């Protein structure tokens, strides 16, 4: 299949999923936020008011930054692409210049079609007021941030680290900007899971299994490589080895399992180099405190 046709089909499927599940995405994000607060409270962090928090890879909706600012935290959201509130010609011109026409078109469509219902659902599900002006948004790579040393109490991230091309550099930077008693709460989408290849057809493997893309195709023949964003392919143990160089692991929280009924004996034999946990765990969360420099 030629590249333009393949890209067109990819974006068409993304629009279809967005139309069908935009409000579901907001509900999932509010649920993650609630779980994060519960996990932090269990570890003794019960009040984020006036805390300095960094949201790594905040994305065009910067939802995690918004929710944290709703708790009166001081939040900085960074992303390698231009992220701005609202809709304006200047915003889309900046995205076009810095991130290209595809990103500009995707952001414009999201703003025009999905933004209002998404944020309305996010506010309802979280019970928080969303003040877009309260969040400081910056275009920045996590591997080289224009932030002073020891300036953050908490670093959060949701499904971002699997897209980084230099995870060790990013983790070193997190240690630099965190205060000695600061924490990370970093959720990584597990590459070896059934949805870890980031093919849109496997967004909901247990309720909407793909009839076109084979299960775990990205670990097998990889016949459907067209995905919305590049992934580094790192496995869980590789992340752990990197984090342990710079951080004391406080908790390593496994995420939910998915695709259990789809892991047939034939597929299990083909993927014998991976443990069952690797294949079925959707993601994991790294809670860690920086080691002394």
Topology of helices and strands:
Blueprint: H1 3-42, E1 52-56, H2 63-69, E2 74-79, H3 89-99, H4 101-126, E3 136-139, E4 152-158, H5 167-177, E5 178-189, H6 236-246, E6 247-254, H7 265-270, H8 276-280, E7 283-290
Parallel strand pairs: 1-2, 1-4, 2-3, 4-5
Antiparallel strand pairs: 5-7, 6-7
Helix pairs in contact: 1-4, 3-4, 5-6
What does this structure look like?
The protein is α/β, with parallel strands linked by helices and 293 residues long. The protein has a domain at 141-293: Vaccinia Virus protein VP39 (Rossmann fold), CATH 3.40.50.150. The chain is 40% helix and 17% strand. The chain has eight helices and seven strands; from the N terminus they run H-E-H-E-H-H-E-E-H-E-H-E-H-H-E. It has helices spanning 3-42, 63-69, 89-99, 101-126, 167-177, 236-246, 265-270, 276-280; strands at 52-56, 74-79, 136-139, 152-158, 178-189, 247-254, 283-290. The chain has a seven-stranded mixed β-sheet, sandwiched between helices. It is globular. It starts with a helix and ends with a strand.
Short overview:
The protein is α/β, with parallel strands linked by helices and 293 residues long. It has a domain at 141-293: 3-Layer(aba) Sandwich (Rossmann fold), CATH 3.40.50.150.
Name a few traits of the molecule.
7 strands; alpha/beta; 293 residues; Rossmann fold; 7-stranded mixed sheet; 8 helices; globular; 17% strand
3D shape: globular
| Portion in helices | 25-40%
Rg estimate, integer Å: 19 Å
Which sequence of SSEs, written as H and E, runs from N to C?
A: HEHEHHEEHEHEHHE
CATH topology of the domain at 141-293: Rossmann fold
Question: Roughly what is the average pLDDT, rounded to an integer?
Answer: 95
Name the CATH superfamily classification of the domain at 141-293: Vaccinia Virus protein VP39
Helix and strand composition category: alpha/beta
Q: Specify the number of helices.
A: 8
CATH-level-2 architecture of the domain at 141-293:
3-Layer(aba) Sandwich
Low-confidence stretches: none
Instruction: Report the CATH C-level class of the domain at 141-293.
Output: Alpha Beta
Work out the strand percent. 15-25%
The total of beta strands comes to: 7
